[in-house]
Specification:
20% of the residues lie in helices and 29% in strands. The protein has a six-stranded antiparallel sheet with strand order 1-19-16-21-14-13. A six-stranded antiparallel sheet has the order 2-3-10-5-8-12. The model has no long low-confidence stretch (mean pLDDT 95). By secondary structure, the protein is an alpha+beta fold. It folds into two domains: 27 residues; 298 residues, Sandwich (Jelly Rolls), CATH 2.60.120.10. The chain is globular, with a radius of gyration of 25 Å. The structure holds 1-hydroxynaphthalene-2-carboxylic acid. 1-hydroxynaphthalene-2-carboxylic acid binds next to strand 3, strand 9 and strand 10. 1-hydroxynaphthalene-2-carboxylic acid (1HN) binds next to strand 3, strand 9 and strand 10.
Length: 356
């Protein structure tokens, strides 16, 4: 093949500079037609020195969320919607159904007598109960009745349906990892013919079998926790005891992570969750890590400073801290925060970092 030659002007003259730029551009235009591009033009933006995030720090106040979710109850039934959920959209990513780049967050309501029909999907879900009492979720054959503060797991491909046999609406926060699943383009979902699954275990079986310091003979070999519902009734007293014992981290308060009791590892391979209690007047030291985090205030009130933004929170408010941004919690009263992030996924990939 003939090689195009250009007459070289003397080095360093304006003409030579112009000429090389023009030659490069002509080259880029030619290789673009062959679906190629020069790495050196984009290297710094594809391999950044530090994390770059589009996620904006943001708080959704429960007063607004609850009244709008209740209003949605007059517009569509749970059956029609399949899941009657209002998405908590990160303000920097409207239209993408994301709270962070990897996590979806939404608030779901089930009214008395309603059923959200059985289905399953590749993406894992967690629920954190905000309001109501006595609605249930059935997961993998266990029907679990839920109360505020309960943390409920629906792992990858587990069949699940919800219903409300109480006389009050129930609202909970849904967090799903589908933005990450969709990044891998690995989404599957299927529906069942019957709207509710037949349950084979009693309410609380999985917590009692696996969460009591004994383990059933036989082995649980799945890569997620066998426990369906980590009840607030059991978890709250633990962080309260830690607080009383003075086991209070300067950044995270008196905090536990929800664990798979078989392995001691995270509850799901893709998402991890924590519960923290803060003493009244707590003023935390700043912290940052590469996992963008969704917080829920369960009790109390306070402020989380993220960079130069202040997020004020009270009961059932949900807020988001972006990856690698410094944040610090302040609690005006004794407070409890639930949090969830993609830390286990990042750790499994070897990319998770925390820092000063
Ligand atoms: C889903 O299946 C549920 O099962 C809730 O309750 C929220 C958001 C996106 C996709 C699937 C549920 C969801 C969801």
């Amino acid at each position: 093949m003939a090689v195009a030659t250009a007459t070289k002007p003397a080095q360093g003259t304006p003409d030579s500079k112009h000429n090389i730029e023009a030659m490069r551009q002509a080259f880029y235009d030619r290789i673009a037609k062959k679906d190629m591009a020069p790495l050196w033009k984009v290297m710094k933006s594809v391999v950044t020195k530090e994390p770059v995030t589009r996620v904006a720090p943001h708080v959704w106040h429960f007063d607004d969320v609850k009244s709008l979710v209740m209003e949605s109850g007059g517009l569509i039934t749970a059956e029609e919607a399949e899941r009657r959920v209002l998405i908590l959209e990160n303000p920097a990513m409207h239209g993408e159904s994301k709270a962070t780049n990897t996590l979806f967050a939404g608030v779901q309501m089930i009214m008395p007598g309603e059923v959200a029909p059985a289905h399953r999907h590749a993406s894992s879900a967690i629920r954190f109960v905000l309001d109501g009492k006595g609605a249930y979720t059935s997961v993998d054959g266990e029907k679990s009745f839920m109360s505020p503060g309960d943390f409920v797991i629906t792992a990858n491909w587990a069949p699940h349906d919800h219903g409300n046999t109480s006389d009050v609406p129930m609202l909970w926060l849904d967090v799903l990892d589908f933005p990450a699943v969709n990044f891998y383009e690995a989404s599957f979902a299927e529906h069942f013919d019957a709207p509710t699954q037949s349950t084979t275990r009693e309410d609380g079986d999985s917590l009692s079998f696996y969460g009591s310091g004994v383990l059933p003979d036989g082995s649980w070999t799945k890569n997620y926790t066998p426990v369906i519902n980590y009840t607030y009734e059991r978890t709250r007293p633990i962080v309260e005891r830690m607080l009383k014992a003075g086991d209070v981290d300067k950044r995270h308060g008196a905090r536990v992570h929800y664990a798979n009791p078989v392995t001691g590892g995270p509850v799901l391979p893709t998402m991890g969750a924590w519960l923290a209690m803060f003493p009244k007047g707590f003023s935390g030291e700043p912290y940052r890590s590469t996992d963008g985090t969704i917080f829920v205030c369960v009790e109390g009130q306070g402020t989380t400073t993220v960079g130069d933004k202040e997020l004020h929170w009270g009961p059932n408010d949900v807020f988001v801290v972006p990856p690698w941004k410094h944040y610090a919690h302040k609690a005006a009263e004794q407070s409890v925060l639930f949090s969830i992030s993609d830390r286990p996924a990042q750790k499994a990939l070897g990319i998770w970092r925390e820092g000063k």
